[in-house]
Structures are given as structure tokens and as C-alpha cells.
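Thread title: Can someone regenerate the structure for this chain?

I was given the following input by a collaborator and told the matching C-alpha cells would be attached. They weren't. Posting the sequence so someone can regenerate them.
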Amino acid sequence: MRFTFTLPAIMILACAASRAQVVPAAAGPAAAGGQAGVQASGTLRYALRYTQIAQFYNGPQGNAESSTLSGDASYQNANPVRPFSLTYVGGRMWNNSGGSYGLGYFQHLLVSQGILKRHWSLNLSNDVSLMPEAPITGFAGIPGVSGPPSVPGQPSQQILTLNTRSVDNMSTVNFTRSIDHATSLSTTGSYGILRFPDGNGLEVNQLLITPQIIRRLNALNSIFCGYSLSRFSYPGYAVDTDTQSFPCGYLRIWNRRFSTSISAGPERVSTSGGTATPPTIGLFLSAGVNYQQRSTSAALSYTQTTTGNGGALIAFGSRNHDVNANFSRQFGKNLTISAFGAYMRTQALIEIGALNLNLGGVTNSKFGGASASRPLGRYLNINASYTAVQQSSSAMLLSNAILGLSQTVSFGIGYTPREKHFK
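Best answer:
Regenerated them for you:
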């Protein structure tokens, strides 16, 4: 089953959720009969932020100074069998001096609705964003711009760019069914699009289906096996890239704080259409380490797989090796420090105009940074961050791709009132 939400529909849903209020018990016959009125409960958090950003780039655009005004909100209901959550960040960046980097409006919205039953569960979600450049870190996606805490973020484009407006929309359905006390079946389906309104990127559609069986050996150990089918198509080109993988894996929970996981299996890649090529067999590999304490969290992951690409790389598909790490620690109630780093190696499978597989060049992307925030009174807080991006390539890239070193330094102030609880 395929669920697709359009951008206007998502914005309407966001407005409706942001105006959610506690509805009083109904008056009149229903109330007189002793029936409870419609009720709503949950937690709402929101913040407003102003950020001053300095950017340094050894490319043709040089250095620049810009300002950003942004806001974010998150809502989560308290219904244990119908969990609903909404997270949003949006704002505008404008130039003060120097070159231009990712100026204009940016928005990111994630909506999720679950249904939990005794033996099965269903979750529907939609993740949509409008970005002025390739997103890098955090839910806001833009270096130096803060967003809602505890919300992961990662690049949706393998090649990092500047001044490249994109619309990214991914709709996902997940269904899980318990077979017995230790075995369950899970199926995930998703459909996504990546579009470039200014025509300066390779657009792509993605359809993903992933059934999986999970077996819990005991309270600390689980194994799983599955099948994954991805189809990537490119508007304007009669080309499809298909990937099929058969991964099996192992999850180990060492204690309440520390867990590890690994999965691997063969991966088959083929193309059809005007640039059809013989199928090739490779290796899918994914591994991760997670640590979670009351005031400290850390994660490290590695993924080796084939994707449909899209963006500044002029190729139908790419072979990716990605490493991601992040760390966050809260010192008392007054200081929070976080850091992140990533390395992405991207090899083009079929460059546009090429006839054979694995002839494309390689792009190496490295980025990382650190940030700190501290309360300033009851509702105000100040923050500072540093982000660096280093990218080099032997592949066919568009001119908006970052080549060389780009650095971002930011200072900001935010207004964050206490979270509101509706009962």
C-alpha cells in the first residue's frame, strides 16, 4: 500500500495540530446523561531563535555574513494506543554582507500517527522539507541553526551543495505483527521524492519495501532476517535503478545504557531503460553502537549500500560508504555540549552518458562540528556552534557542489518557554 501526502496537505495538518486545544466536556444532553465530552491531552514545546552566522569558503563565493530568524514546535499526545507526534522547524535566512549561502526560507515537518493493539501495531509518518541547500546536521538541516532537541537529522543528499533549493518528501507505513511471545513480522513501505525547483539538481523518486522477521532469543539478544527492494526512477529519463538485498543481523543489549547491532547480506543492483546494464552483486552492511545515559548520549554507525543518488551528482545511482557519529552531554541544568562527525564516500554507478556500470568518479565528503547552549534567565538561552565541511570529487558534479573547505561559525539567542501539558 502506498501513502503519499502533498506539501499543501502537510502544511494544513501542521496548522491544525498547532491549534490543538483542550476541549471542555460537552454541555447539554450528552453531559446531562453523564457521558464525558471530547478530551485532548499531550505536551507542547516551542521556541523562537535569532542566529548570526559567519561563513568562510575557499570557493568562488568567498566569505559571507548572514542572519536567521527561526522557530520550532513539537507536540506529542498522551494516548497510549493512538500515539501522535508532530515536529516542525521553519525560518528565513538573509544576507548581510559578502557572498550568498543558502538564503531564503527553510521548513521541515515530521508527522507520525500510530495505532497500537495487543498483537499488532501500525504507524504512518510523513517527513517533508524545503531547504535552500543540502541539509547537513540536526532537524533544521542548516549549519548554525538550532532545532528541536532529541530529533535526529542526517543528509538526504550524498553530495553537499550551496544555494540549491530542494523539496524532499518521504511517506512511510510500518506494520508489525506478533506471531508468539518471541517472534514478530514487520513490513515497511515508503515512497519519496526529491525535487529541485530551480532545475539545478538530478531529481529522483524512490519506492522501498522491506519485510522482516525478528526473533528474540532472550531479554538481551535478538536476531532478524529480511528482504529489501528499492526502485529509483528519474523524471525526464527513461531509466530505473533497482536494488535488492537479503540482510540478516544480530542485536545485543548489553545493559540499560549500551547496545550494538550488525546486519549484512548480498545486494543485487540492476538498471533498466535506455542505459540497461547487467546485474551486479555486492555487499550490504550496516553496524551501529548506541549509548544512552540520563545526561549523556552517543552513537556510531556505518552503512555500505547502493542508493538512487539524486542531487548534484550526475549519475543514475551511487555506491555509498557512510560513517556517522554524534555525542551530547548535559552538565547540570546550565550547559549542554554536543558534537558530531561524518564521512561519506560516494561512487557514481552510471554517469549520464556512460554505458557501463561502476565507471563514475568518487566523491569524498567529511563534515563535523560542535555546539554549546546555556540558559540565560528563565526563558532565554544562548548558543554557539562551529561546523566544517570538506568535499573533493573526481565525478561529474554540478557547479553548486561544495569543493574544498567550508566553515560556519554561529552565535544565537533563543526564547524557550516551559512546555505546556494538556490534560
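Residues 1-38, 354-358 have pLDDT under 50 and may be disordered.
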